[in-house]
Amino acid sequence: MEEGTSQSLGSSADTALTTDRHTDYDVWQWDAREDCEVRQILDRIADKWSLLAIALLDRRSLRFTELKREIDGISQRMLTRTLRHLERDGLVERTVHPVVPPRVDYALTPLGRTLHATIKSLVVWTEAHQEEIARARADYDQREADLRETSAVGAGS
């Protein structure tokens, strides 16, 4: 067993799971319990609608209708919920202009801009590895199809 790895899978008391000997990174900070604050934040910011809204708002502030038009497939209800959650988390600010009809703009807060840098890194990684992932998916699908075929032939004997 590697140095720094606990023999007990259920205990995180003195365990720091590391990628190398010099990293002090505790995977248990992402507690699996539903009421864990880190998990709740990750669930919120890592969903596809939040990622798209944050990416679009990095360029400039946008009105609700502009966001809806730019995010293909999102419903009005889902966009409303997403923006409200992002606003509650301090990532997006909502500005209501006192005009008729009312105009509402959404923009990233300074905190939201720091998150965008991380999201951009994730997108760059995905773009760099999309062909490898596509090959891995095709290989996996072929292995599964071969396994199903073998199981069907074996069951028919």
TrEMBL record:
Keywords: DNA-binding, Transcription, Transcription regulation
All residue ranges annotated as the HTH hxlR-type domain in the record: 36-134
One Pfam family hit: HxlR
Transmembrane segments: none
Signal peptide residues on this chain, from the entry's feature table: none
Domain of life: Bacteria
PANTHER family, A to Z: TRANSCRIPTIONAL REGULATOR, MARR FAMILY (PTHR33204), TRANSCRIPTIONAL REGULATORY PROTEIN (PTHR33204:SF39)
Protein's name according to its UniProt entry: Transcriptional regulator
Taxonomic source organism: Occultella glacieicola
